[in-house]
Specification:
single chain, 130 residues, alpha+beta, Arc Repressor Mutant, subunit A, 2 domains, three-stranded antiparallel β-sheet, 5 strands, 35% helix, kinase, transferase
């Protein structure tokens, strides 16, 4: 788990990873996916909520009252660099269809090409490892 989750127990870290992978999960499914009792699953979910890692909201799933657990993503955890080429945002953002032959896409690709390249150590003049 990441350094930000150092205050979590092993079970809590595993649970947080599950919630983040799923995007959202009903508590009635949460404890089953973790292979723990419903009581332990409820305690884990409540601890994650208290620590500010997830939100729990009342929900009905399969005819039963439960909670919908969703991860809280902090701004500092977001990385938009993969959407950028220099200072240009990807033409894929917010578009349902992108014309691969269009000017916006071509310009974005060219910006990617001309960014500072990553040069392997051998090519950069570093002696090869033996």
């Amino acid at each position: 788990m990441s350094a930000e989750a150092e205050d979590l127990s092993e079970d809590e870290a595993r649970a947080l990873e599950l919630v983040r992978e799923q995007g959202k999960i009903y508590q009635s499914e949460f404890w089953k996916a973790l292979d723990v009792s419903s009581r332990k699953g409820s305690r884990i979910a409540k601890k994650l909520e208290e620590k500010g890692y997830v939100e729990r909201e009342d929900a009905v799933h399969a005819g039963n009252t439960t909670y919908l657990i969703t991860p809280i993503i902090k701004d500092e955890e977001l990385d938009f660099s993969l959407l950028m080429a220099g200072d240009m945002l990807s033409p894929f953002v917010g578009e349902e269809e992108v014309d691969a032959r269009g000017d916006a896409f071509s310009q974005w690709i060219m910006n990617l090409v001309y960014e500072d390249p990553v040069i392997p150590e051998e090519e950069a003049g570093a002696p090869p490892e033996e």
